[in-house]
Design a protein that fits this description.
164 residues, 36% strand
Length: 164
Amino acid sequence: MIIRPIEVRDAEKFLELSKRIDESGFMLFEPGERQTTVEQQRISIERILSEPNSIFFVAEIENNLVGFIAVIGSNLTRNRHSANIVLGVLEDYRGQDISTKIFNKVSEWAKEVGISRLGLTVIKNNNKAFNLYRKMGFVLEGERIQSLKINGEFVNEYYLYKLL
């Protein structure tokens, strides 16, 4: 397995990966909702690559993308030290330490660019992800009530953070 920064040439594979991960029901996009084109994905990757406090790492096995972590930072003075992350790994590849390795890569990168705080959200009933984040050193910061509506029902999210 290789953990590496995303490249523009990954646009099509990354878009397919994102759509497959959306099917889990635990991402912000509903299954089938993502309407991004490959060209739009290319532009998005180019934009991310041009931002000094943002990066996407992908997990690649045998030329297939099987997971990713997006780190979205800011260039504003007051919160330049902070970034939000989104993690996704294909179901068939969970439990293989991909998430741990990808988180470790993010921690190394964040320290290099001066990010000292990572934040994320997780759907309250996504116990596997919540437990993973806690294992990786994230601390529960709070709960956002009725922040999402899934299958017609309001759902809460947990906010977590980690100081590096």
